[in-house]
Amino acid sequence: MGIDKKLLRAKEKVTDIYGKTVRGGAYIFPKQSVDFCATVILKYTSRDFKKLRSADFAEMAIDEVVFLVRGFYIMLRNLGCSEKIALEQYNAMERRMGYKLRLASVELERQLDAIHELAKEYERSYISFNYYDKTYFLRYMASKVEATRHYIESVYGSYTDIRSDELSDMALEESYKESPQTSTERINKEMIFFDALEHDDEYQKLLQQQEKLIAEDTFIKNKQARFRKIQVRLVKIREKHQMELFGELLDEEEDAPLIIRHPMDVLKKAVEDADSRIKDHAERDEAEAAKTPEDIEREKAKMERMWQLLEECGVNVNFDLPNTDEQEEEIFVRSGNLSWEVKGTIHIPCYCNKGQITAYKGIKGKCAMKCPGCGYYVLVDYDDMTAKPLELHGPVRRVEKSRINGRWQK
Predict the structure, then answer these.
(1) Which of 259, 74, 56 is nearest to 169 (CA)?
(2) pLDDT-derived band of residue 10, with 50, 70 and 90 as boundaries?
(3) Which of 101, 120, 286, 368 is 20 to 30 A from 302 in CA distance terms?
(4) How confident is the model at residue 280 (pLDDT cuts 50, 70, 90)?
(5) DSSP H or E segment with residue 379
C-alpha cells in the first residue's frame, strides 16, 4: 500500500488487552481494527488482492481500494498516530493506488450513464410527449451535451497551457542558476552516461529481471533478497561507467520539492479563460450580425486585395486566409523574408567522416551533438561555424573510441 511499516510496530514495550507484555518492534493491532485486519487476511488470495500484490492497481475493484485506504488510515489513527502523520500516509496510499483519480473517473461515468438513462426514459415517455416532442427534446439534449463537451475541451486546453507555462518559467529560472558551460557539460555527461547504460547488456537484463520480480505475486514474500541483490549490482554498474567515462562519480541531484500552483487555483483560472472566450465569441457573433451590406462589401474588397498581393508573389492561396493585418503582410512579402536563409555547413570531425550540420542565419551559441552515422559526440559552435570532439575528461575519448571500434569490428 506504500505506508511506513514502522508505524504499525510498537516503539517500546506495551501491554495488550489481555495484560500480556508485547516487546518493542513487534506488530501491534488496535482492537477497533481487528475486523479490518481479519478481512484483509481472508482476502489475501482473492483476485483483487493478487492484483494489489503485483502492483496492478488499475485492475482492482474500486470498492476494494476504498476499503484498504480508509481501513489503514483508521488503523493508524487507532494506533495513536497524529492526524498529520496519518494524513501523510493516507496521501502516500492514495497516490500509489490512484484512489482519488479512480473515484473521480467512476463519478464521471456515473453522471454520463445517468444522462443516457434520462434520454432513454424521455424516449419511452408517453405522458404529454408525442413523437415530435421527443425528437426535438432529444436534439436539444444532444446540443447541450455537445456544448458541454466543447466547454470542457476549452477549460482543459487553458488548464494545460497555464501549467505548461508555469513549469517552463520554473525551468528557465532554474537554468539561470548555472553557467552555460556548466549546463552544457552536465547535459553532455548525462548523454554519454545514459548511452553507455543503454548499450550495457548486463544492466538492461537486470532491469528486466527487476521489473519481473515486482510483478510476481510472491515478490513480497520470497524475492526480496534477490531484488536487493539486483539493486546493489545496478548501482555498481552505474558507478563503474561513471568512473570509466569521467574519472569521478556524478553528483546525485536532490529531488527538491516542486512548489507549483494549487490545482483548484489553476482550474479557477482555466474556467475564467474559457468563459472569457465564450463571451468573446458571443460578442463577435453579435458584431457579425450587426454588419451592414456596406461593411461586408468593404471587408470583401480588403480580402481580395490581400489575395491579389499574395498571388503576385507566387503564393498558393487556395485555402481560407487567417486573420492577417494587410499592411503587415505587405511589408513581410515585399521584404522577401519568406524562407530560412542558410548560413553555411559545419563538418563534424567524427570517425565515419560523413557527418555535417546545416546552420541557418540567426542561430547562435554552442550545442552538444551526436553524429547520426557513427555516434561520436562533438561540440558544435554556431558562432565560429566549427565542431570539435567533445573532451569532458581524459578517459572519455578512449572509451568512446573503443566502443565505436568494437561496433565496427562486429
Answers:
(1) 259
(2) confident
(3) 286
(4) confident
(5) strand 377-381
- E-state strands within 220-283: none
DSSP character string of 17-44:
TTS-EE-TTSB---GGGHHHHHHHHHTT
Among the ranges given (125-134, 355-364, 397-406), the one the predictor scored with the smallest mean pLDDT = 397-406
Q: How many residues does the chain have?
A: 410
Closest C-alpha among 405, 382, 401 to residue 391: 401
Q: Which residues contact 28 (CB under 8 A, 6 or more apart)?
A: 8, 9, 10, 14, 16, 22, 79
Asked if residues 158 and 274 have their Cβ atoms less than 8 Å apart, the reply is: yes
- Set of cell numbers at residue 92: 502516500
Rounded to whole angstroms, how far apart are CA atoms 2 and 65?
A: 13
Closest of 55, 74, 69 to residue 99, by C-alpha: 69
Q: Which residue has the cell 444522462?
A: 115
pTM of the model: 0.52
